[in-house]
Amino acid sequence: MKIRILVTGGTFDKEYDELSGALFFKDTHVQEMLRLGRARLDLAVETVMMIDSLEMDDERRAAIVARCRDAAERGIVGTHGTDTMVDTARVLAAAELQDKTIVLTGAMVPYAFGSSDGLFNLGSALSFVQVLPPGVYVAMNGRHFPWDRVRKNRETGVFELLER
Amino acid sequence: MKIRILVTGGTFDKEYDELSGALFFKDTHVQEMLRLGRARLDLAVETVMMIDSLEMDDERRAAIVARCRDAAERGIVGTHGTDTMVDTARVLAAAELQDKTIVLTGAMVPYAFGSSDGLFNLGSALSFVQVLPPGVYVAMNGRHFPWDRVRKNRETGVFELLER
Amino acid sequence: MKIRILVTGGTFDKEYDELSGALFFKDTHVQEMLRLGRARLDLAVETVMMIDSLEMDDERRAAIVARCRDAAERGIVGTHGTDTMVDTARVLAAAELQDKTIVLTGAMVPYAFGSSDGLFNLGSALSFVQVLPPGVYVAMNGRHFPWDRVRKNRETGVFELLER
Amino acid sequence: MKIRILVTGGTFDKEYDELSGALFFKDTHVQEMLRLGRARLDLAVETVMMIDSLEMDDERRAAIVARCRDAAERGIVGTHGTDTMVDTARVLAAAELQDKTIVLTGAMVPYAFGSSDGLFNLGSALSFVQVLPPGVYVAMNGRHFPWDRVRKNRETGVFELLER
User: Fold this and answer.
1) DSSP state of D163
2) CA–CA separation, A108 and A11 (whole Å)
3) Looking at CA atoms only, how far is residue B13 from chain A in angstroms?
4) Rounded to two decimals, what is the model's pTM?
5) How many Å from the N-terminal Cα to the C-terminal Cα in chain A?
6) 3-state DSSP helix/strand/coil percent for chain A, to nearest 5?
7) Cα distance from D148 to chain B (closest Cα, Å)?
8) What is the pLDDT of residues C84-108, one digit of tens each?
């Protein structure tokens, strides 16, 4: 199965600017993470944007939808900031990309920090995308959630299943 | 879904003994890795043994089979050295534990090293075990393989799908 | 020789708050760094404050001077943000603590990041303090500078020797 | 002050061979460590050999002495396995390189492991070499020892000062 990784930034890819002392985005770490994970998948990695998910807006979400629609791959993993990941999942679901399995994932701590959950989440999302039926999902905390049954608990930082 | 992690050692859990300069086993790093991955799964972690997989033998495999059979959980992830992982998968398959999904995983580089694939593989195995149908699998390199269609290429360190 | 480490915060000790996505201060990492470095020195570690060095002001500098004056140890290492480290060194020199060797050090990247210079700088500062004559120094980039012959180059992040 | 770093291997530079599962030597990590430490010293780095210090013998020590004698630099830092570091220091002292300050250092845990003391020790050794008078020293555990007043305690892994 061919998989496309669409990079959008988020905590995943934040770095520390040692001159300003601020966090910023440069290049994605996804390629390095795939090397570390010794991933042997048929993968294409594409950087769509590099933003904090608080800056995510309708126009940018439309760009992500367009990239998912145009992608030749049936499996798509999107890296995304956690704060608005569920909102983007909803927009992707509304786009009705019938035959695609789309899994959004992210990180609570930047990969560039030693203590990041990014590598765990990337391994998790790449696995779920290979076996879940078409649809839009969020993969965090080792779990997968259908797009319409998940929320991020802002107080704990944990993604929770919504009861129907 | 409840999941049991059965720890058997392997490269995953090797540490560096700073007095002797040799690699050795102490405690498993699985709990620490789950914390890092912020895993929010219904998990039980059990150390069955702590050995290099070159020491794996019939008796030890029987112990692993017994632990899988006795486990209340339907999903089981086993950490295992990569050299003989496929052999243990075969023994588990022969045990015909009908309703269980068993996923073996490991690492090419110890978790205690900065450059380990362990966290990626653990995230991957824990994801596959939740969605794959009952059976015995190997999860490495971001992929999953049925127990009878995989081999480790000793020259490249990569797990490969066997054509039927 | 007894040495006192006075912790004041700075980039050294910044951490990533995974709920807010901002950098903040919690506890110092100095004790953990000393363990990692297997330091076997006669050391006392004291947290004087936990601030970004941009918040350093006269009152806080007076507190640091007071702690240096009151300390029983002849050797003092102060951790400090790099932006105003030279200013604090000047205030310490003006205090004329005749018989003490005081070495300020810091980091360009937080210790909690994998890529920090903190451990290198701490090893360096603790070494210089044992062998330099009484006076006030800055130890960065593997070098030591008398307090009145150093400036931080804001564009490169490098500490430079001023020609007299 | 110009400094030459003579690399001889030792735990410092051990790596994990993911195919054989054994520790081995490839290239030195010293250049990477200097980058991490943002060292701004006038440095030459030279790999003299890449061996476990248990393999150190008279011939190899003669090669190290020759490199120290021939070096244009007055300050020399040698990386060395800890088990026989003191023996090499004795041979260097016997060579009577009058005007040189030679500091041997090493690590208890390989730099390639996350938990290494290597960066701390390198920062320490590079600092001591700039300020100590000519002679041969060992720098470990944040301390410096004259070559004839130090032993490695094999049970604790700690370098200790010998009373005269």
Assistant:
1) P
2) 6
3) 16
4) 0.95
5) 32
6) 30, 30, 35
7) 23
8) 999 999 999 999 998 999 999 999 9
